[in-house]
Structures are given as structure tokens and as C-alpha cells.
Amino acid sequence: MSVLENQLDTHEARENFVVDTKEKAVWALRKLAKIRREMAENQAIAEEEIRKFQVWLEDVNGALQKDAEYFEGLLQAYHRMVLEENPKAKSIKLPYGTLKARIQEPEYIRDEEKLLTWTKANRPESIKVKESVDWSSLKKTIISTANGVAIDENGQVVEGVTVVERGIKFSVEVAE
Q: What is the pLDDT of residue 82?
């Protein structure tokens, strides 16, 4: 039997197969477990190959990275020298690239707790107050109607809430 005929038989069998007994359900679970094991094996093989390529890439690029850092250091030293002679030389255009120097903003390391205390005492206008709905408590008071409208215990429509009824969610857990 050719591969194509085998696939056709499998396709026809799938169309006609129905799980309608406990025995068929057990068989289907066993088949599903086998498929998932095979998928896990494939995943493990792929991950091992990826790991090998990552090791190879780190090995070959490690020396290249050191070379790149060396030349970047030389170019930075050259740019510093040019900047000392001409402070306006923020960019130097060359045939194979551009050297750029930018003055960076200072970094502010903050202790949020101390900063908040100080700001409350000295600059209260710089304090943000964020309002938000306590959904867990509000949800307890909402009733959903058949047409997807949310109402509160007084019968008022709750603006900003649409109720979407969801059906039963099924899942299959295969024993390992």
C-alpha cells in the first residue's frame, strides 16, 4: 500500500470515526497520549539541536566580539581626541560608517518610598492619584440579563459593562 493510499484510508477513517463508547474514548486517549509523547520527543530533539547551534554561535562569535570591542575602543579614543580639538565634532562621517557622540541625560536613582514622602511634604502638586474601579466588589453587585446587559441590585443599567455569556469549556488531560 502506498503512502497516499494509507493517508486516504486514515482520512476516510477519521471522517467516519466517532467516540461513542467508553472503549473508544479510552482508545482515543491512548492515541492522543502517543501523539503528545511523539510531539514532546520532537520538541526535545529540536531544543537539543538549537542548543548545539547556540554553543557553536557563541564559540565563533566570541572571538569576533572581542575584536569588535577592540576596534570600537580605538574608534572611541580617536573620537575623544577629535572632540578635544573641536568640541563641535559630535559626528564624524567616514566611508564605512559614522562616529557619533551624544551628551547623555543624568540618571536619577530613586528610592520611591523616601521620594514619595518628600514629595508629599514639599511638592504635593507632583503627586499622581489614580482612580480605578474595584472590579471584584462591583462584580458581586452586578446581575446579567439575557440580552447581555449588566444591571445592579436596583435594576439600573451599569454603564461600561457588557456581559458576554460563554459556553462550557472542555479540556482533555492525558495521563502521562
A: 93
